[in-house]
Amino acid sequence: MFNKKVLSEQFVITHKVSDLLKVDKKNLIANAIRNHVLEKRLDDEDWYADYNYVKIDDHQHLAWIHDYMRDHYRGEYGHTPVLVKRGGLVVMPNENIGSHHHIDDWDYEGSPEISVLYCLKEGDKPSTVMFEYEFGRNKKRRWKVDLEEDHLIIFSSYLRHSISKNFNKDPIVALSFQFQLL
């Protein structure tokens, strides 16, 4: 008999958020866009990936989204996500977000295990999140997932990913959550 241990798993999960979750998306979108305009970034150094993410002010509806993600992930996969970091992502017209991951190279223990994008506002012309494989014989393979309003994209935090160019006249707005698992 063989004894197999999985040392690492790369995954991308998509999930349509229930219509029963009555989130004030207009307020959350305004919050992200306001902080984008005011340049309230998670990191002020433009060479770090967190430069693309903005701070999000506390709000009851943000807590509801967090609770929804935590409870559904725990129910489906048996692990409880604990929030490490959150932010807003605003992709302006004719802009894109370059390839990055959510691992802190100076703090592996404090780095997140899973990341979640929650799309609040998309445009008529679709944008995608592209994931890059980095290991073994699948190195350099790619996988695309459409950014769709009211959908979660959950993925391994160490997966490099990017967001394609926004060909719409309005910004694309999403929330980003990063979790460790218990």
List keywords for this structure.
globular, 182 residues, alpha+beta, four-stranded antiparallel β-sheet, 10 strands, six-stranded antiparallel β-sheet
Q: For this entry, what is the oligomeric state of its chains?
A: single chain
Low-pLDDT ranges: none
User: How are the strands ordered across the major sheet?
Assistant: 1-8-5-10-3-2
Cα Rg:
16 Å
Would you give an account of this structure?
- Helices cover 17% and strands 33% of the residues.
- It has 2 helices and 10 strands; from the N terminus they run βαβαββββββββ.
- The longest helix has 18 residues, at 60-77.
Task: Walk me through the topology.
Layout lengths: L11 E5 L8 H13 L15 E2 L5 H18 L3 E11 L5 E4 L13 E8 L6 E5 L9 E5 L4 E6 L3 E4 L8 E10 L1
Antiparallel strand pairs: 1-8, 2-3, 3-10, 4-9, 5-8, 5-10, 6-7, 6-9
Concise overview:
This protein is an alpha+beta fold and 182 residues long.
